[in-house]
DNA-binding transcriptional regulator YhcF (GntR family) (Longispora fulva), 118 residues
Amino acid sequence: MIVTVDPAGAVPPFEQLRTQILDQVRTGALAVGTRLPTIRVLAEELGIAPNTVARAYRELEQDGVLETRGRNGTFVTAFGDAAQRRVQQEAASLAALVRRLGVDPREALRLVAAALRD
């Protein structure tokens, strides 16, 4: 996950963070099941207050984009309509299979693209 925050920007930092995470989830840059950095770690990396990160995470959780699993961390959830959620879940399963089998990710993407063309 790559996010940046401009503390001097016109948009509040929590909103900058919330929007960037949401965009990455929508584009698939953050896949379903991805574990996000802890609030403290992300706050330190971005040089912002932990409460700022907590607010962004909390709002994304309220919107169903993220879920916090206690001490296990905060994760990306399936997001969108039912069909999109199903495809996100299957994509996460396929990604796990690709990693488990040691298949090159580029080859896996080529195979998926070929299957979609058929």
